[in-house]
Amino acid sequence: MTTTVGSGSLTFEVAEDWAKLPDGWSLKECPDVAVDSQDRVYAFTRGPHAVIVFDRDGTVLSSWGEGVFGSAHGICIGPDDSVYCVDNGDHTVRKFSTDGKLLMTLGTKDQPSPRFSGKAFNLPTGLAVSQKTGDLFISDGYGNASIHRYTADGEHVASWGSSGIDPGQFVIPHNIATDADDFVYVADRECHRVQVFDADGTLQAMWNNIWKPSGIRVGVDGNVYIAELIGDGYYADAPSVGHRVSIYDKSGQLLDRLGDPNWGEEPGRFVSPHGINLDSRGDVYVGEVSWTMMGRTLDPPRELRSLQKLVRVN
Q1: At the topology level of CATH, where does 4-312 sit?
Q2: Is residue 300 reached through a cis peptide bond, with omega within 30 degrees of 0 on the bond before it?
Q3: What is the pLDDT of residues 178-209, one digit of tens each?
Q4: CB atoms < 10 A from the CB of 67, how many?
């Protein structure tokens, strides 16, 4: 029996066992996922195969990046299909070709900027590419509280943001997205909100009451898809606290939430959504840090599902 989530024009079927990994392969967990112009899916994992490339049916096409990254965190694909990988383990952002050839590195490996200095990078988290200019917008989130803008060639343009809870400030800017109008959407995770800026960093809007927004992307339908992390500590098993995908229109109106009040691996449920992306047909791919947030705490520890596809029905 097929499991569906969502409602109305935002209804999706869960593609069970979508990722067809070869025998002996493991994701461990999948912090983020990206989709290129041919609807090939790039899973950025913390397993032995760093970047695994799937076709839209879930068959593995290739893998690359083994031994390159300190800690996989964010992945984004530009209009020219360049692949950007954000490594919060060694404080760099790398640009690759689709077959894994290194094209550019921003930041210096294992040399972070001073914490909360506003200078790039200290434990960066995510990246988005302007659809108008090709400029790069990078969320510098764990050891900083900044957004950095670069040209496509890697020249620094501007930075904005500081640590705090006031408008324009951040407490872990965890991921970032752009839309066709060059608005910049920042998942301000520990403030439980999304802040919307123009390309120059001027605040345009603030959307509150979003549980730990961790992944964010704008779909082909123009809606904003947000991956909400699971609760932690005393709230790890709390119903309706994270472990879901929320969908907003660009005015900040909540349209729907996908998932179940309780976390789990069953179809229609999530463990700990961390990254999200969509293909040209509106299908949704969700990457989860299910090992870090839940699997390692189990007795005995075990790898949980960390990559899921939702097929758009309407």
Answers
A1: Neuraminidase (2.120.10)
A2: yes
A3: 999 999 999 999 999 999 999 999 999 999 99
A4: 6
